[in-house]
Design a protein that fits this description.
Length: 72
C-alpha cells in the first residue's frame, strides 16, 4: 500500500518537500533497512561464488574446512 504523502510546493508549484506520518516514515525506514540488508547479502553471496569459481580454476587458493573452523 502506498503511503499517504503531502507535498510542500514553492511559489512556482514545484514540490520541494514531502511530508509523511511518523508511522509511514518508520515503515519506510524499516523497508529501506531491509532492502539494504538484502543487497549486502546478495553482494556477499556474489563475491563468494566468484571466489569459488576462482578456486575451481586454480586462480585462488582455497581454505580447508578444518583450517577455517580453527580460525573461528
Amino acid at each position: 500500500m502506498a503511503p499517504h504523502v503531502n507535498y510542500v510546493v514553492n511559489d512556482q508549484g514545484k514540490a520541494i518537500f514531502v511530508q509523511l506520518s511518523v508511522q509511514e516514515w518508520e515503515n519506510f525506514l524499516a523497508e529501506h533497512n531491509r532492502l539494504k540488508s538484502l543487497l549486502l547479502f546478495k553482494e556477499r553471496l556474489s563475491t563468494a561464488f566468484k571466489e569459488i569459481r576462482q578456486i575451481q580454476k586454480g586462480e585462488k587458493q582455497g581454505t580447508a574446512l578444518e583450517e577455517f573452523l580453527n580460525e573461528l
